[in-house]
Amino acid sequence: MKGRIAWTEGDNLFVVRKGRTTNKKIAPEKASVVQTYTFDLRQAAMVRSAQSNKVDRGNFFRMDGANCLDCPLASLKGCYTHKYMQYSGFISMLRSLSTEDIHSRERTDLAPIKDWCAESQLTRFGSYGEPSLLPIDLVSDMADASATHTGYTHQAGKDWADDYKDFFMASSHDQEGADNLPSWRHFISLAKGAEARGVQCPASKEMGYVSNCAKCGLCSGVKGKGRKDVTINIH
Q1: Which domain holds residue 203?
Q2: DSSP characters over 136-182
């Protein structure tokens, strides 16, 4: 059932993994899901060279310059991926990769990934790290093969990231930010009392978790499902 491909490119380690999920917010329990992860090579080296089982959580997330870029939530500034359970999963993943598992992109066969996407209920870009660092041709192939996919980026507005608007939502924090980038669809995180145009996320607490990402699929960019922006309350 499980599949995993890892490769290095530039200052990052990329991992694409197919497996069963236990996160009911994104898909039915035990559904097949493909997820992408991007780690700064310094994070990987830190974990893999540790002499004990202890890896300092703060130091780990402060080494996210290459994989999270200038995201305003990076380096322990509020990203949900900084929670302990996610952190523990990242550490376990990096520890489980052997030297033989990791190649440069030129030596890595990425072809199976498209088949994994076709076989799964959801492709989730950016389970950790900035998904727009993935090769655009790979993202396009994965999205096309997937029944449903989701993806979010804080790099909207950068010229080099423009092609990713077809597949990912721009992560925004108010209606003004969304209005400044009209060519993108937006996933808007709203502070208490704030309002924005768009559809409220059906997999959110405020909507009673009436759906999940695999069933909904609205957060899939300009070429994906839906045309409106999506909003969620910050909890």
Answers
A1: 153-235
A2: HHHHHHHHHH-SSEE-EES-TT-GGGGGGGGT-EEEESSHHHHHT-T
Locate 56 and state its tokens. Answer: 């300092």
State the pLDDT at residue 179.
Answer: 96
Is 1 found in the same domain as 104?
yes
- In this structure, the dihedral spanned by the alpha carbons of residues 109, 113, 118 and 121, taken in order and rounded to 10 degrees, is 170
Paired with 232 in beta bridges are 189
- Based on the fold, state whether residues 109 and 197 are members of the same structural domain: no
pLDDT under 50 in the chain at which residues? 1
Element (H, E) at 42: helix 41-49
142 and 176 housed in the same domain = no
Tell me: do 122 and 58 sit in the same domain.
yes
Strand partners, 122: 33
Residue 200's identity, in one-letter code, is Q
Q: Is 207 helix (H, G, I), strand (E, B) or coil?
A: coil
pLDDT of 52 reads: 62
